[in-house]
Amino acid sequence: MKLEEARDWLRLAAVPGLGGASQRLLLKAFGLPEAIFEARPTALAAVVGESLAQRIAGAEDDAALEAGLAWLAEPDNHLLTLADPEYPRSLLDTEDPPPLLYVKGRLELLGRPALAVVGSRNGTAQGERNARAFAATLSQAGLTIVSGLALGIDAAAHRGGLEGIGTTVAVIGTGPDRIYPARNAELARQIAAQGAIVSEFPVGTPALAGNFPRRNRIIAGLAQGCLVVEAAERSGSLITARLAAEAGREVFAIPGSIHSPQSRGCHKLIKQGAKLVESAQDVLEELRLTIFSERSEPDNTPSPREGGGGGFSFDVANSGEDLLLSAIGHDSCTLDTLVQRTGLTPDNLLAMLLPLELEGRLAQLPGGLYQRLA
After folding, report:
1. Fewer Cβ within 10 Å of end Cβ, the chain: N or C?
2. What is the 3-state secondary structure (H, E, C) of 65-76?
3. Are 133 and 280 part of one and the same domain?
């Protein structure tokens, strides 16, 4: 985008009281921001009222606008507008697409298939392990992991998204030059280098409580579906899930203990029709995608499992034990579940499980369950 074009977009966004809905009305009526600023006040007033028309007519360059231009001049910083062909189509199709998106990092990720992974800021250790494991597997299957850079489940999902060949997008509730919370500063730097950080808020915008629920619609809008890992009964993650459902996205939830407050939000979603998931494969099957290990390349070879379909691509002679541990994940599972996840026969699996048990890397639990220990 040329500097003067960016200046007009930033100046329009900076008009006090001129929200996204009013900006879209003006853009529909007059075209690009340059034409809006050249329009007569009476014509503007017919669209947004006299008060806003006067503010638009009196809009001038200020320090905030110059700060935005300075940010845009830095490497790997981008400004996406509703007029850009690179503006993510999935977000454009929602009811309230932001007129401007500040993007730091890999712009092309916003056009790729994505999954929102969200949950409690006070997630349990198991919940964070689940979020990271699901995100790692799903990102390596080709989905970009979208979350909100909050503590707890969000941060774990981003870390999982960055593992292996995967990547992630963080949608933040501050200006693109601010990181909140500060404890995630190093994670944010990794995301900016390998993924992308996205904000609709102007440069310099601090962490304001009302902005975080608002950014949830962008998280939901960028993704094909939304996976809630852990959430209390009153949680911002449920807002994201509701927005995803309203936008026609798939909603997934991981169940937990009936005694855990952090499971009640997920159970509520499942009662309302969210898909209960126990493995990453459940998500991919619903989205009609396939899991491939980081050592395998996608091809048209049928799965060893009868009937074809997706699964972990195993090479028993090449790190099969590590891949088997990945298939087990961090929760206990049955031999039948491993057959479904791996495509291997029960005899092959038992031959691989026994050495791992003797090495202390997994344990066999009552009821025929297997639990990964490391």
Report:
1. C
2. HHHHHHHHCCCC
3. yes
